[in-house]
């Protein structure tokens, strides 16, 4: 009698486990959104510390473009700065998928402007 109960318990246990495993479905990929956001913040900090936003909009545009292209080549990501002036390290007509965006304020002509700094593919 005990062996019969043990076999029934084992059958119920395996059927429940199979249902749980089947309900799980495909394994999920790793969520790397926090890492992408940290890379965007680090790229912004690099541009800020190199002085690319000093005299922004005047003589600084060549400097920021070169630094954005350098960041893009190191990370294999496109770098976008969108606001009153749009800059990008990736040219071309294809659509780019933005993977991380942060909003920051920069000084343009003695007044603060809000810009969106993004990384994409």
Write structural notes for this entry.
The termini are far apart. A hairpin with a 2-residue loop joins strand 3 and strand 4 (111-120). The longest helix is centred in the first third of the chain and has 23 residues, at 2-24. By secondary structure, the chain is of the alpha+beta class. 45% of the residues lie in helices and 23% in strands. It is built from three helices and four strands. A four-stranded antiparallel beta sheet has the order 2-1-4-3.
SSE layout and pairing:
Blueprint: H1 2-24, H2 33-49, H3 61-75, E1 78-82, E2 87-88, E3 98-108, E4 111-120
Antiparallel strand pairs: 1-2, 1-4, 3-4
Low-pLDDT stretches are none
Give the DSSP E fraction (strand runs of 2 or more residues).
15-25%
Count of DSSP strands: 4
Radius of gyration, rounded? 26 Å
Distance between the termini: 64 Å
Shape: rod-shaped
Helix/strand-derived category reads: alpha+beta
Overall average residue pLDDT: 82
H/E element sequence: HHHEEEE
Query: Main β-sheet: number of strands, strand sense, barrel status?
Result: 4 strands, antiparallel
Strand order of the largest sheet: 2-1-4-3
Share of helix among residues? 40-55%
Number of helices: 3
Feature tags:
alpha+beta, 4-stranded antiparallel beta sheet, 4 strands, 3 helices, rod-shaped, 23% strand, single chain, 45% helix
How is this structure best summarized?
This protein is of the alpha+beta class and 121 residues long. Helix content is 45%, strand content 23%. The protein is rod-shaped and about 90 Å long.
């Amino acid at each position: 009698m005990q062996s019969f109960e043990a076999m029934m318990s084992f059958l119920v246990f395996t059927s429940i486990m199979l249902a749980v495993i089947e309900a799980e479905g495909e394994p999920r990929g790793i969520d790397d959104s926090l890492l992408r956001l940290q890379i965007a913040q680090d790229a912004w900090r690099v541009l800020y510390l190199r002085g690319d936003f000093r005299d922004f909009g005047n003589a600084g545009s060549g400097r920021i473009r070169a630094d954005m292209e350098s960041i893009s080549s190191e990370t294999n990501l496109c770098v976008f700065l969108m606001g009153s002036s749009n800059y990008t390290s990736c040219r071309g007509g294809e659509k780019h998928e933005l993977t991380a965006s942060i909003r920051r304020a920069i000084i343009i002509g003695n007044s603060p402007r809000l810009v969106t700094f993004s990384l994409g593919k």
